[in-house]
Design a protein that fits this description.
Radius of gyration: 28 Å
Structural class: alpha+beta
Strand content: 25-35%
Pfam families: Esterase
Protein name: Alpha/beta hydrolase family protein
Mean pLDDT: 92
GO molecular function, one term: hydrolase activity
Organism: Patulibacter brassicae
Shape: globular
Keywords: Hydrolase, Signal
Strand order of the largest sheet: 1-2-3-5-4-6-7-8-9
Length: 528
């Protein structure tokens, strides 16, 4: 039976599981149909109290064939202050590790005693934190869907969290380093920071790719069940590979930490043990981490890069990486970066929502990358086919926005919906040998500003009128009450003028915004 849940099993020794993953690439494993999916979820079926700080949740979800477990560490002081809300740190484990590996293997409770955040450690088994392709059938397991769409809202609803990107971070070890960086790159609007610790962060590397191909067999699946064979599904591999998605990480705080695969007795590693075997593993992830580091340098992305030198894929090495990473993450949570003013994002997903942009690609288009680059004034789209787009809900209260000069209505959510024509849709999947032709189109947005007279009241000297503008400033707007007029710069701040017209019954405001759109408003004068 295909193993998608988190039931008991005897894991391979954690220090050599990655080496065996590479070796098992040549071994075929028959795929067996998954059990029927559970009811849509998630739903907590049990919560066990392990200690003052640790809870274990059992969650039923349609993302897996059986219930899954999640460790939750409450920070010191959580119960003492029932009104305080806390950041959340997600931990993604490595191959053949479980939800409780952070607690049991590296003694995570002690390591986080002074760390001011809730810790959430879900079960990744050997699934590379991805929704499995399963030979094109899809379905469970869906690790990415579980973490991003189900677990984050569940944790925010169940515990006193700060349910905001600025107070949510993620880190992982080995396969979990890949998972943390991949999830952050595919969902940069969900996390403020990400750290890879001895992470397999470049699946283009042949050795790391071999481990990924074989990893699904550890959970009873066929080789290449995660993304499909690279020879025919390379776009799926690249659509999840942190190195290929590096541009998506521009607005996150990044840490990349690794040792070089040389035994280090100074931190407690021993030659006559599995530590020595694990050195080959650390050597492999070191190569991938260096590749990723160089890619970040190439695109000008600032990040923490720490090569510890001697050290292998061992608990002592992981512990020093964790301690250092937690220090960096704590600084981010204390002073998180602001949400970006610009967007630079590429993805292979046919439908996605990022930074509140909602996009659906041409249904006739083969699987390939689409890229968004821009800001609130204009967005550049690179891809093929007719792409349906909804802007962020940034235009509430407005009626129209010009989309490339065409007045377009604003919907009830405050979005503008339009279609971008990127030429004929490519019919052949990217990276399969045929040339992929992309078109780029820039779409500009010009909102029609709206004037509002927030108040018009009679005062001793006449009429006091207060005005604001939404959707853009209206400079030098004209206020009129009876025969009296005044000029006022209307913007997002309410501004007032007194017009000496004691008998006026109405106030009128008029002007034009920065794009030349006319704006007008009228209000009845009220008594004092």
């Amino acid at each position: 039976m295909l193993r998608n849940g988190s039931g008991p099993r005897r894991p391979l020794p954690r220090r050599i599981a990655w080496v065996l993953a590479v070796a098992s690439c040549a071994v075929g494993t028959a795929a067996v149909g998954a059990a029927p999916a559970l009811a849509a979820g998630p739903r907590v079926t049990e919560e066990r109290r392990i200690s003052d700080r640790v809870r274990v949740l059992t969650i039923a979800t349609d993302a897996f064939a059986k219930p899954t477990n999640v460790d939750v560490f409450l920070p010191v002081g959580y119960d003492a202050d029932p009104h305080r809300r806390w950041p959340v740190t997600y931990v993604t484990a490595g191959t053949q590790n479980n939800y409780d590996s952070f607690r049991k293997v590296v003694k995570g409770v002690a390591l986080t005693e002074r760390y001011p955040s809730i810790i959430v450690s879900p079960d990744g088994n050997s699934g590379y934190w991805s929704d499995w392709y399963n030979g094109g059938a899809g379905g469970a397991p869906k690790y990415e869907t579980f973490v991003i769409d189900q677990l984050i809202p569940l944790i925010d609803g169940r515990y006193r969290t700060v349910a905001d990107r600025a107070q949510r971070v993620i880190f992982g070890i080995s396969m979990g380093g890949y998972g943390a960086m991949m999830l952050a790159a595919r969902h940069p609007d969900r996390f403020a920071a990400v750290a890879s610790l001895s992470g397999a962060v470049n699946s283009n590397d042949p050795l790391l790719a071999g481990a990924l191909s074989a990893s699904s067999t550890f959970d009873g699946g066929a080789p290449d069940a995660i993304y499909g064979p690279r020879s025919t599904q390379e776009v799926r591999w690249r659509g999840h590979n942190p190195l290929d998605l590096a541009e998506n990480l521009r607005d996150l705080d990044l840490q990349v930490r690794t040792a070089n695969g040389t035994l280090n007795p100074g931190i407690g590693e021993q030659a006559l043990s599995a530590d020595l075997v694990s050195c080959a593993v650390e050597g492999g992830v070191h190569t991938g981490s260096v590749d990723f580091h160089r890619r970040l340098l190439a695109i000008g992305k600032a990040h923490v890069w720490k090569d510890y030198g001697p050290g292998c894929h061992t608990v002592p090495n992981f512990k020093r990486e964790i301690v250092d990473a937690l220090g960096g993450l704590a600084k981010v949570l204390a002073a998180p970066p602001a949400a970006p003013a610009t967007v630079d994002y590429r993805t292979i997903e046919p439908r996605f929502d990022v930074w509140d942009w909602q996009v659906a690609v041409d249904p006739q288009r083969a699987l390939e990358f689409l890229r968004l680059q821009g800001d609130r004034d204009a967005m550049r789209f690179t891809g093929s086919g007719r792409t349906s787009v909804a802007t962020p809900a940034a235009y509430r209260g407005l009626a129209l926005v010009d989309v490339d000069g065409t007045p377009t209505p604003v919907d009830a959510e405050g979005r503008v919906r339009f279609t971008v024509d990127l030429g004929p849709p490519n019919r052949v999947q990217q990276y399969t040998g045929a040339a992929t032709r992309f078109a780029t189109r820039r779409v500009a947005f010009a909102p029609h500003a709206v004037l509002r007279i927030t108040s018009a009241r009679r005062v001793r000297r006449g009429v006091r009128a207060c005005v604001e503008a939404i959707g853009g400033a209206v400079r030098g707007a004209r206020l009129r009450a009876g025969s009296r007029t005044a000029r006022i710069d209307a913007d997002g701040q309410v501004r007032c003028r007194v017009l000496r017209s004691p008998r006026a019954t109405r106030v009128r405001a008029s002007g034009a915004d920065a794009f030349g759109h006319p704006a007008r408003a009228t209000a009845r004068v009220r008594r004092r």
